[in-house]
Design a protein that fits this description.
71% of the residues lie in helices and 1% in strands. It has helices at residues 2-28, 30-35, 39-50, 58-68, 87-97, 101-127, 131-149, 153-169, 172-181, 186-199, 204-222, 224-241, 251-257, 262-291, 296-305, 314-317, 321-330, 335-346, 356-373, 382-401, 414-417, 428-438, 447-473, 490-496, and strands at residues 407-410, 444-446.
Length: 497
């Protein structure tokens, strides 16, 4: 009972902090006050689809977006922001489109906060770490960032975390359903779904039925032609539209920075995603063998999927945190390095200067993670280790802020991206591609853009190296399992139940 009271108090405190920070952003950032960043596009796409229109076309999507945000320097009258979500994801957002925008946004912010809390609870049970530790790992990079950008990864990470816990406990129907819900971010959730489909036979039916239901909801909501349009035209076009956007963390963006064309950059990103997809699925199987932990089927593949790829941002990279926490719990030899990955992934390296409150939240979360991770170290006092980590983080941020704004490459020509006159019936990504190539925030890539991304890239590379080393070096818990009936290995039990 006492532990439950502590958890409830901690959850309430976090909700209050998130609400206070969000309230502060309302008063500090006028643009955030008006449209909630990307949620405005998602809301309008769902609303347009509910009215029987194509949510991926310029109109009436643009008209809706301009009713919730007044034109400004950053949102000119011709601008339309696409909603590159699966039709099934738009169907899930449809109930929110019945409300006015302000109400829908506030409901979504509450959903994100609750999703972050439940994901932290699931990870606490999965890893046996204290709830305040897992919450610290998610509160900034998942909770706050998704609230700030009005984005969906918190729902995806919740689905993956609960799916992992359900696989561990033998609740295969729930595991399959949760894994399917991770497809709200398809490039993150799909590798986990595929791994579970291959390696967790008892979850296959639930997973297949749930994925089919998810797809059917999208078809019923938007129609078959729109679904075909999404996969055949919208996705490839949107990848090209943002190939040079400097907020990307993808291999596509790096290839563009290296001087390659938009098309070749996207092709390299697609190839890397395929390679990492396969690697994640195979390594997850090996990790489940080595650690006797089937939860890796749900948590390891997404960590591979968010390194490289075509369309990766900092909010998607946070999907690697659950896998890093699980590794820290399972491997004492790799724990210190896994905790380093968690620490680097748990804070933002891009939006720290928004306000004092945001910076304080990040320092609190980082301090909590380091305090717990350093519990086994006897060489130095834990307080000194935490202080050194916080000072080092602030010093790194200061060094990054002092980097010169040297442009490495400008965006490709708008005329080369869309040579013909853009009509209202065209896909919104055409107009968005023009915006990306003319908007001063995104029409060039700077050296500092790479520097700000290095800590997260390093953390991801470190985590994947730990996964691969464990898969390559360690021996399975049991040798020669020719007779599955004689095995106590959880994955075999998963297959038999």
């Amino acid at each position: 009972m006492r532990a439950r009271i502590v958890w409830i108090a901690a959850a309430a405190l976090v909700l209050i902090c998130l609400a206070a920070l969000f309230w502060q952003q309302h008063h500090r950032l006028p643009r955030f006050t008006v449209n909630g960043h990307d949620f405005g596009a998602f809301y309008c796409a769902a609303k347009v689809a509910a009215q029987g229109h194509d949510p991926y076309r310029i109109e009436p999507l643009r008209a809706c977006e301009h009713t919730i945000q007044a034109p400004s320097e950053y949102f000119k009258p011709d601008v339309v922001e696409p909603a590159p979500l699966l039709p099934g994801a738009l169907a899930l957002l449809a109930p929110l489109s019945a409300f006015d925008y302000r109400t829908a946004l506030n409901i979504w912010l509450v959903i994100v906060a609750i999703a972050t809390l439940i994901a932290a609870l699931a990870l606490a049970r999965l890893t046996s770490f204290p709830f305040w530790v897992t919450l610290s790992a998610l509160v900034v990079s998942v909770g706050f960032l998704d609230m700030f950008w009005g984005q969906l990864p918190a729902a995806c990470i919740l689905a993956l975390s609960v799916a992992a816990l359900c696989v561990r406990s033998g609740r295969f129907t729930a595991a399959g359903a949760c894994a399917a819900l991770s497809l709200v971010q398809p490039h993150v959730g799909l590798p986990a779904c595929f791994a579970m489909l291959l390696w967790v036979p008892r979850a296959r039916v639930a997973l297949a039925v749930s994925v089919a239901a998810f797809g059917t909801a999208g078809i019923l909501f938007t129609g078959i032609p729109t679904n075909i349009e999404y996969f055949m035209r919208m996705l490839p076009l949107h990848s090209l539209a943002e190939a040079g956007a400097q907020d990307q963390f993808s291999l596509t963006w790096l290839a563009f920075m290296a001087g390659l064309s938009d098309k070749v950059s996207v092709q390299l990103g697609q190839l890397s995603y395929l390679v990492m997809f396969v690697a994640g699925v195979l390594v997850a199987r090996r990790l489940a063998d080595v650690y006797q932990e089937p939860a890796f089927f749900a948590l390891a593949p997404p960590a591979f999927a968010v390194l490289g790829g075509v369309f990766i941002h900092d909010i998607q990279i946070s999907a690697a945190i659950p896998g890093a926490l699980l590794l820290a719990a399972k491997d004492a030899r790799a724990a210190a390095w896994a905790w380093l990955a968690v620490a680097l992934l748990s804070v933002s390296w891009l939006i720290h200067s928004i306000s004092t409150g945001v910076m304080a939240l990040q320092l609190l979360a980082l301090g909590a993670i380091v305090w717990y991770a350093a519990r086994a170290l006897r060489t130095f006092p834990r307080f000194a280790i935490v202080l050194a980590a916080l000072v080092g983080y602030v010093a790194m941020l200061r060094a990054l802020d002092m980097l010169p704004d040297q442009t490495i490459r400008h965006a490709s020509s708008p005329a080369a991206f869309a040579q013909e006159h853009i009509r209202d019936a065209d896909l919104a990504s055409y107009q968005w591609g023009i915006t990306m190539r003319t908007w001063r925030t995104f029409d060039h890539s700077m050296a500092s853009s790479i520097a700000y991304k290095l800590p997260r890239w390093f953390a991801l590379a470190l985590l994947l190296a730990l996964f691969v080393r464990a898969a390559a070096e360690a021996k399975p818990a049991e040798e020669g399992r020719s007779d599955p009936r004689a095995s106590a290995y959880p994955a075999q039990a998963v297959a038999r139940r």
